[in-house]
Amino acid sequence: MSKTGKEPSNQEIYNKLAAELKSELAEHELLNQRKFSDDYYQNEVNLGANENDLAAHHDRFKKVISATDTRSLERIKVYHSYFFDKFRADGKYTYADKQAAWDMFIELDSRIATQQLKGGVLETALASLASLFTFHRQTAHTHGFNCRQYYQLVSEVLDKELRPFTAKWHSQLPALKESSKLEKSCRTELEDVQTKLSELKTSLSNICR
Q: Could you tell me if 138 and 62 lie in one domain?
C-alpha cells in the first residue's frame, strides 16, 4: 500500500520492481546484466539457446529494464521474481514475501492475536487465533512459491507458539466456562502467546520495508 493509503498503481509497482532489480544487478559482485539475462533465458525459456538467441533476448531485456510503459509490468515481475529466487543474499526478500508479510501483518494487528482481551470471551478469542492457521495457508497459496521466506518464518512461530496453546485450550472449553481458576490460567498463557505474535508482527513489518 502506498503512503497515501491507496493501492499502488501498475506504474508504481513497475517502478519499484524495476528500481530494485536495477540496484541489485548493479551491486551484485558476480552477476552483471548480460549474465543474468543469459542465465534467465537458458534456465527458464530455452535450454539450448545459441548466441543469437541470447543476444536477442538481452536486447529485449534491456528494453524492459529501461521502459516506462506499464504494459511491461508482467515481464519485469517475472525477471524480478527470478532474480531474487536465484541470487538474493541473506536478508533479501522477494516481492511475494513482502506482499504476504503485509497481509499477515494486517491480520495480526487487527485481531485479538496482538490486542488485549480484557473482559472478552475466551471462546471467541480461541476461534480467532485458530483462524490464523487457515489465513496463513491461504496467504501462502495466494502469493506462491516465491514467498518461501515468509512461509518459513510464520509457520515456525505458529507451530511452535500458537498451535500448542490452541490445541490445549480448545479441548478444555467446557471446563473453562465452569472454572475461574482455569480461565485465569488460560488468560495468562494467552498473554504469553500474544507477546510472541507481537514479535512476529514486528518481523513482518521489517520484511515490508
A: no
pLDDT of residue 74: 65
Distance CA 54, CA 31 (A): 16
End-of-domain residue from the set 92, 126, 150: 92
Q: Which 8-state DSSP code applies to residue 7?
A: P
Average pLDDT for 125-132: 91
Q: Which three cell numbers stand for residue 127?
A: 476461534
Rg value, the chain, Cα: 22
Rounded CA gap, 117 and 205, in Å?
23
Average pLDDT of the residues of the chain: 82
Looking at the whole model, is its pTM more than 0.85? no
Contacts of 189 (CB under 8 A, 6+ apart): 165, 168, 169
